Amino acid sequence: xxxxxxxxxxxxxHKLGEADRxxxxxTRYHGQVRAVAKGVRRTSSKMGSRLEPFMVxxxxxxxxxxxxxxTQAETIGAYGSMISDDYSSFTVANVMAETAMRxxxxxxxxxxxxxxxxxxxxxxxxxxxxxxxLDSYLLRALAVAGWAANFANCTGCNAEGPHSGFVIQTGxxxxxxxxxxxxxxxxxxxxxxxxxxxAGEWELVEASDEQTKVSASAIVSAYSQWHIxxxxxxxxxxxxx
Length: 241
Description:
Elements: E1 3-16, E2 20-27, E3 32-37, E4 56-62, E5 68-77, H1 80-84, H2 87-103, H3 110-125, H4 130-144, E6 165-167, E7 172-174, E8 184-185, H5 188-199, H6 202-207, H7 210-227
Parallel strand pairs: 3-5
Antiparallel strand pairs: 1-2, 1-4, 2-3, 4-5, 6-7, 6-8
Helix pairs in contact: 2-3, 2-4, 3-4, 4-5, 4-7, 5-7
């Protein structure tokens, strides 16, 4: 059977037998991969720490019929322990990992891979607040998947904003004339903040007041849960600070 090599982010691990693990990874070029990592739960294993959740590694796989097998792993980004040591970052990383699992499959998903690795790096280095990193990641990941939110022009008639209504089903803001009864009311500040999160304009994001950030997070959460089938279980454990 052939071998192949790829960069990968560890999304999730499961125990297998007494010493092995099944590892779910998002690779740069091969999409989502599930593989057996043999012997990694033994204290003598050199690969075990390289295959923990949120770690990024250069991995060699042995291709199998149902599951591949990890034969080598070299660390690229040691983000696991730095994220796990902070509970807010840990809960955010779990939401991002679950999102990546839901939005990718076996086909190549390089944009999703690069987006996730950047978000995990920001979490680990505490570049921005965990809640803001998550909101930005969710909006961008959904945009890459084809559900780009619109926080500028009306999604009904394309009238130039700003607008004070947001409709989850149509994926963006609406003007007063197009606003249905079910629209969520948001302030212009919240709409601008959401637009900055999507665009990665961090100076504008960090300049927003706390109430604006909280209100925007509620919109991002509802929007994500609507578009991701069956919702995200990890949202139940999310701690935002």
